[in-house]
Design brief:
The protein is built from twelve helices and eight strands. It is mainly α and about 525 residues long. The strands form four sheets. Strands 1-2 form a two-stranded antiparallel sheet. A two-stranded antiparallel sheet has the order 3-4.
Length: about 525
């Protein structure tokens, strides 16, 4: 077995240590003890975390590997939920702009957003929350139940106990009613025997109720419909075996999809069939009919009510959500009927009133009106035409027709002057003639332009310009001067190729004659010329 290695300053120290160990083994020297006064077993190595079973391992070893003393700074207390420390009377600088508390900002405020925050109103200042910080140890940080108050579960126990008491009270009342009824109908002897039977029956009923309490959350099982009576088990999507399977109703490959795993076919396999003759219209039909639709509407109402601030939850309190939905439907019907009655009181109900007489429907009456041959009224009063609430036959800006009396080229205008600009001044017949003349002139210009584009102008051959412009017809070049200019141009080009041939006393002449320009033009290299490489 390995032993702990110790470094000694000299051989003498090592010899003394060996003699001390031999004396301890022989019982001639006291045993070595630790800080707590306990004897240290020399056979147990001090670097081992756990001693073997055959050695004395009554106490732990290796203090450097275990934390013997807990840190006094660690605590097991928890936050005081909902505790308040101080409530101010007016808004303080740096506080929450919404509620006025100093312990948080408006971004982290848990109170309902106010229309005008406490910063501007200085009213209803919320108290400051109690802020605490704890230094938890390793186990405290990972404790799921740290800070849990077991007393908070007492109200759940009280609720179930109250339900059990109410159930027992109800059963006793039912038993007393049964006994009173039988006592009135039967004689005393039979009543006594019946009392014993009723007591036994009551005990049985109480036992059944207790069993039902325990089975509230049990699994609901359905009986399979089979010829032999069947067995129990959780079953879904069953059908009568004599009916045609849904996947055999339409054998077309592109028909409704059937999922064999869930035995569902959402779409209608026979959409073109008469609805009165088919008995299956797809699984989606069940979602939009019957109680499924009502349940969907109930869920939607619960969501909308929760978004508007009502404390409604379909899964947490389904009875409350259903009751609120029923009240909502009742109030909605009352409101609809009230609005309907208001409209009927204001405008009347033509459908419910009695039919008008035939004379009134045809516009006949007992009034007598006589007309002459020209259609003028001689006797009586002519029927007045109903007037419209809109202005009629009102002419503006000297117009003799209303706006919209003229239509042309997908535009409305005035018929009197054929203008398309509304609120314009009427120009009469002269304006119509001017517009027609302008239209004719426009058409003539367009036609002339199209004719000019069709005719291709002939191109004239021009001689190259000597001075950058067209060569005049009367220009005459001296052939001798032209030959000298060509030699001069050749000399200039050679000097450009080799500057060493240029002399120091070069005289430059800026005068350019027509012969010089012609020589430059004749010697110039045209880079676009395909035959330039063959020129001398």
């Amino acid at each position: 077995m390995a032993t702990a290695s110790v470094a000694f300053k000299s051989r003498e120290d090592h010899r003394k240590q060996m003699e001390l160990e031999e004396a301890r083994k022989a019982g001639l020297a006291p045993a070595e003890v630790d800080e707590d006064g306990k004897e240290i077993n020399p056979h147990i190595p001090q670097y081992m975390s756990s001693a073997p079973w055959y050695l004395n391992a009554e106490r732990p070893s290796l203090k450097h590997q275990r934390k013997w003393k807990s840190d006094p700074n660690y605590t097991k207390s928890w936050y005081d939920r909902g505790a308040k420390i101080y409530q101010a009377d007016k808004y303080r600088k740096g506080a929450c702009e919404n509620c006025g508390a100093m312990t948080h900002t408006s971004k982290t405020c848990m109170e309902r957003p106010r229309k005008l925050g406490a910063k501007w109103t200085s009213k209803n200042i919320a108290p400051d929350e109690k802020i605490e910080t704890f230094e938890l140890d390793y186990d405290g940080k990972r404790d799921r139940w740290n800070g849990y108050d077991a007393a908070s579960y007492a109200h759940v126990i009280d609720r179930y106990e109250a339900r059990d008491e109410a159930r027992k009270t109800y059963l006793k009342e039912q038993q007393l009613k049964k006994l009173e009824e039988k006592n009135t109908t039967e004689n005393v002897e039979e009543g006594v025997s019946d009392d014993e039977d009723n007591e036994d029956g009551l005990k049985i009923d109480e036992a059944k109720v207790d069993e039902s309490k325990q089975m509230d959350f049990a699994k609901v099982e359905k009986r399979v419909r089979t010829t032999g009576g069947g067995s129990t088990g959780t079953v879904r999507n069953l059908r009568i075996r004599e009916d045609t399977a849904k996947y055999l109703l339409n054998l077309d490959v592109n028909s409704a999809h059937y999922d064999p795993k869930t035995r569902s076919m959402r779409e209608d396999p026979l959409p073109d069939m008469d609805p009165n003759e088919k008995f299956y219209a797809g699984d989606n039909q069940n979602r939009v009919s019957g109680q499924a639709l009502e349940f969907k509407q109930l869920n939607i109402h619960a969501w909308e009510a929760f978004d508007k601030g009502n404390d409604v939850h379909m899964q947490a309190a389904p009875s409350q959500a259903e009751l609120l939905f029923k009240n909502f439907q009742i109030n909605k019907e009352k409101l609809k009927s009230k609005v309907k009655e208001t409209i009927l009181d204001k405008y009347g109900n033509a459908a419910a009133e009695e039919a008008l007489p035939r004379e009134l429907l045809l516009g006949q009456s007992e009034r007598e009106v006589e007309y002459d041959r020209a259609g003028r009224v001689i006797k009586g009063q002519e029927m007045a035409l109903p007037k419209s609430k809109y202005e009629e036959d009102v002419y503006i800006n000297n117009h003799t027709a209303v706006w919209g009396s003229w239509w042309k080229d997908l535009q409305w205008g005035y018929r009197c002057c054929k203008q398309f600009v509304r609120n314009s001044y009427c120009t009469g017949a002269a304006g119509i003639e001017a517009a027609e003349a302008a239209a004719d002139l426009m058409k003539a210009n367009i036609a002339r332009k199209e004719a000019a584009e069709d005719v291709i102008a002939p191109t004239e051959e021009k001689q190259p310009a000597t001075w950058g412009t067209d060569i005049p017809d009367d220009l005459v070049l001296d052939q001798e001067k032209l030959a000298e200019a060509l030699k001069k141009e050749d000399k200039r080009r050679k000097e450009e190729k080799d500057e060493r041939k240029r002399k120091y006393n070069v005289k430059w002449n800026d005068d350019v004659t027509a012969e010089d320009m012609e020589a430059y033009r004749m010697k110039r290299v045209h880079h676009d010329d395909p035959m330039k490489d063959f020129l001398n």
